[in-house]
Structure formats: C-alpha cells, structure tokens
Amino acid sequence: MELERDFIGYGATPPNPRWPGKARIAINFVMNYEEGSEPSIGDGESATETWFTESHGLNSGVRGRDLAAEGLFEYGSRVGFWRLMRLFEERGLPLTVYGCALALERNPKAAEAIRQAHHDVCSHGWRWIKHYELDEATEREHIRRAIESLTRTTGERPYGWYCRYSPSVNTRRLLAEEGGFLYDSDYYGDELPFWRVVGNRPHLVIPYSLTTNDGQYASSVGTGSQWFEFMRDTFDMLYREGATQPKMMSVGLHMRLIGHPARAAGLERFLDHVMKHEDVWVTRRIDIARHWIAEHPLIA
C-alpha cells in the first residue's frame, strides 16, 4: 500500500514535454469499451449495472435482471461504438480504447475494427468491476486474464492499464511485477506524465481525467452544446498556456453516453474545433508513453 501522497508535483515549473513538432498541447481521446463486461446477473453478480446510463439513479424496483438497463448498455456496443469510430475515421484522428477484455471478446467485429484502425488498446481490466474490492490474488488473476484475452482479440498485448474509477492499494505493484506494462493511468492529479518507483522499478503514470469526460452527462451537463463549450474552454486554456508550458488533455468518451446522436454532435463540434488549430498533437496514449520514456527517462 502506498501511504505517501504528493501535494506538490511539478509545481510552478513543470518540465517542457517537448511534444513532437513543438506542439502546444497533446490531446488524447479515450473511448471506454465496457459494454459486455459490466456487472450483471448473467455473469454472477446480484444486480444489473446501471452506471452511466439513462437508468442510473432510477428507483425502478426491478427484481432480478433489469432488461432496460441491459439494453442501454447494449446500445453502446451495437450503435454508439460505430458512430464514434466513424467520427474519428472521417477526420483521420487516432484514439485510445480503454478496453475491457471480456467486452471485446463478446464483439469480435468491434475488436477487428479497432485493430484495423490502429487504435491502441489500454487494458480496462478483465471486466468493468471495482478493482479496489478485489483481494490481491483475484486481482492478479484478472490482470493475467485481461492480458491474455486482449492479446488474442486485438493482436497485441496491452501496454497500459486503467481500472474502473479507482485502483486497489495493490494494483500498481501488481502491474510492475507483471513487467510488460509501460504505464498506468490510475491517477487524476496532474496534466503531465510523471515517474514513480514501484518495487525498485521505474513506473510511468499518465494521468487521466474525470473532468474532461462525457461522464458529465450523468451529473452536470444535459446537452451536446453544454459539453462542447466545457471541452472547448478547457482546450483553449491549455492551448494558450502551451505557448510557454505545454500540457496534455485527456478526453474520456463512453459509447453508451456520447454515442447517442445529440451528444455525438457535441463531440463532432469539438473535434472540428481542435482541428482548426496548429501545433496540436492529437495522439494515442501509447505514443505519449513512448515519447515520455524517450524524452524524459527517470534519472536515478
């Protein structure tokens, strides 16, 4: 268990990341592929998952399987996935897939489309469950199963890791012990990658964001225009700051949320806004990791 916390970070003088092409901002779009791996009665849980759907928070009184909630999840893989893939393909933009292994097993056509598009897959776990509730042996087995499954369905092992919401106190150590991961993204407290030493090994952390995330549709925003304005303002601030202090921006997307037409329209507007700017590196998460490892290695 890591007991220490760091409230200082890079402080007032963050390093110049030296993004390729002297970019003022690196932006990474993340599509969370979770549908088919969420808690469900069919997979052994006692209730149907409703999080990040229109049914979240409803006291429906459904006993047993919640077929409505299941359908809301299935919309993401049946429809939302293909809409998001089209938006990025039309613009020639890369993205990262936070892929839950079991979910991709259950939709081979989606796994093949991701592979053909050369999007990188960061493991989102064997299943979309709460890792902080797993004991160490079970979590180690879930990591092993995720690696094996994603290697089989996507053609390449995952080099990054991201838990559902929060890691356990063991996750980072288990990833370091496994030895094949280049980074994890189980942290929300910065806008640049940084190094940790885990078990006497250097371990890269690439922060993620729950703020620049379509999860806002489940809490604070209601329309595509509202979401676009929030994302635009974030991008514009970071772009201005990037004249002297370049940073990175993570944009989290969920197929069953922003994959709906009115919400996807807000994403479309934001993609076009980003593309109007020069000196922007729209990139995959694995490329950020490899860049940081090459340009900013940990010096003992």
UniProtKB/TrEMBL annotation:
SUPFAM superfamilies: Glycoside hydrolase/deacetylase (SSF88713). This is Polysaccharide deacetylase. Residues 67-283 form the NodB homology domain. It comes from the Bacteria. One of its GO terms (biological process) is carbohydrate metabolic process. GO terms for molecular function: hydrolase activity, acting on carbon-nitrogen (but not peptide) bonds. InterPro entries: Glyco_hydro/deAcase_b/a-brl, NODB_dom, PuuE. It comes from Caballeronia fortuita.
